[in-house]
Amino acid sequence: MAPWLVPQLAPRPIASPPDAGESAPPFIRVADMAGVVRAVQNGHYEFRTWGARFPRLERPDRIVLGLAVADAPWGVLRDAAQHARALLESLGLPPFLKTTGGSGLEIVVAITRRHQWSEIAEFAHAVARHLVRSRPTVFAAAAGPDARGRVVVGARSNDLGRSAVAAYSLRARAGLPVSMPIAWSDLGDVDLRGGHFGIDGVPAFVAARRDDPWAAYEQSRRTLSAAMRRALVG
User: Fold this and answer.
1) Fewer beta carbons below 10 Å: N end or C end of the chain?
2) Biggest alpha carbon distance in the chain?
3) Helices first, then strands: H and E counts in the chain
4) What are the distances in angstroms from CA 6 to CA 82, 181, 195?
């Protein structure tokens, strides 16, 4: 996985593992394949990156929306992702999709480095609130008994100091599933959650696909506007 993973890690701070202890630095840096190997040898399988790149860590450059569901069928999650996609595209923001290697999906939007962390967090949470408000039978704001059968939409990964699992990263769970970038056209009848993209099958899957679904990611960067913010109100 390293040839695909390294470009996702090298420009960004990587959150220290939760069990690293209070004396650990807030982030580590992995610059090349050797760094990935060292990290894995030290038990660091799951890489979670900040939403900003070196050297301008005060300027985030992405928005991440998490879609999670524990007890609903795949079709509910699939359709919720399409609703979120439609909203972002209506705002002029091209969305990119990936699995989490768990029970959900993540939508990532590339933005220009012109905004403060507080602006990005506020905007991301406004998107989440809009989805819950406009489609209350589909989305829920928080997990719990009241969210049963709905998709929880989360924006906390955009808060200062928070992180999101990197594309192509392994997940530290049974079977070592991978957080896999996928095309929107991949959202069909096949459930892509959990171990669908496992460590053993991912290299062959990536080698066989004709196009990189995230090829246009860097060229898609947008600047958030006042018009976008107004569209999320009401």
Assistant:
1) C
2) 50
3) 6, 10
4) 29, 14, 22
